[in-house]
UniProtKB/TrEMBL annotation:
Organism: Phytobacter ursingii
Molecular function (Gene Ontology), one example: glycosyltransferase activity
Keyword Nucleotide-binding (UniProt): yes
Keyword ATP-binding tagged: yes
Entries under InterPro entries matching the protein: CitG, TriPribosyl-deP-CoA_syn_CitG
Enzyme superclass (EC): transferase
Name used for this protein in its record: Probable 2-(5''-triphosphoribosyl)-3'-dephosphocoenzyme-A synthase
Length: 276
């Protein structure tokens, strides 16, 4: 029994899964409103090559996050986020240096960094590393995050704070604090219904159909969010193919809409689905 547990514990380097997830996400084509191999989506300041440079720059930090989780495993869960934050900020700086100040992966660094850190902590505690345990760890580490960083602010300064005050949206913080419920409820149960690239397209559509994506709200308000959600829901209901995804891509680009939050969650979905 101890041997099989040890095998499970050492089965994946989660930091490597995180890097693979980002490459799979950016290479997925077509990807409505998002940067892919065909076009820049609704972005004038970034392209596929820039995303690859960004991934190269931040990948070593995923390993740092996982190692830190292992080293700090015995510290209380309430202290973990404070311990992780300096490495997270350094990773963001590495991204900005590689992209000349363009925010390509800030959301991905947050979510995937937490997952790598949580996996390291689980190993440090000699506990099973799987999707459920990683999500539970992330939720424990992020307990109270929304209250501290969004609900307590009387004067909204950031886009996230403004969206929380105006619409009650909690963004990536809320998703992490609840252990990625959108993925667990709306993506993972359907992960094996499709195969190959179609699996990732299907997962992305499911995310766009339900995710209260703060990127969409920033660009198009609640109307923009509802437009993308309804469009994705219609494709899922009536059937979709590459041509229809390309049509959706044109429609989102024409409205300057980019579901970047769903793209981040797609990368997280790959990691969690692989961990099983």
């Amino acid at each position: 029994m101890a041997g099989s547990l040890a095998t499970k514990l050492a089965r994946f380097d989660v930091w490597a899964l995180a890097a693979t997830a980002l490459r799979l996400e950016v290479n997925l084509t077509p990807k409505p409103g998002l940067v892919d191999r065909a076009n820049n989506g609704s972005h004038s300041d970034m392209d596929h090559a820039l995303f690859l440079r960004s991934i190269d720059a931040i990948t070593p930090w995923f390993r740092v996050f996982e190692k830190a989780g292992f080293e700090y495993a015995l510290k209380p869960a309430s202290e973990q986020l404070r311990l992780l934050r300096p490495a997270g900020m350094a990773c963001e700086q590495a991204m900005f240096e590689a992209t000349d100040g363009v925010n390509t992966h800030k959301g991905g660094i947050f979510s995937l960094g937490l997952i790598c850190f949580a996996a390291g902590r689980l190993r440090g505690l000699n506990r099973l590393v799987c999707a459920q345990s990683v999500c539970q760890q992330v939720a424990e580490i992020c307990k109270g995050l929304v209250a501290r960083e969004l609900a307590s602010r009387t004067h909204a300064a950031t886009a996230g704070e403004k969206q929380y005050q105006q619409f009650g949206l909690t963004g990536a913080r809320g998703e992490a604090e609840l252990g990625f419920p959108t993925i667990r409820q709306h993506v993972l149960p359907y992960w094996y219904q499709e195969a190959g690239e179609r699996r990732f397209h299907h997962a992305l559509l499911r995310l766009m159909a339900i995710n209260p994506d703060s990127n969409l709200v920033s660009r198009g308000g609640i109307d923009g969010l509802c437009y993308v959600q309804e469009y994705a829901q219609t494709l899922l209901k009536n059937g979709w193919n590459i041509a229809r995804l390309q049509e959706m891509d044109k429609a989102l680009i024409s409205r300057n809409l980019s579901p970047g939050g769903s793209a981040d969650l797609l990368a997280v979905s790959y990691v969690l689905a692989t961990l099983g």
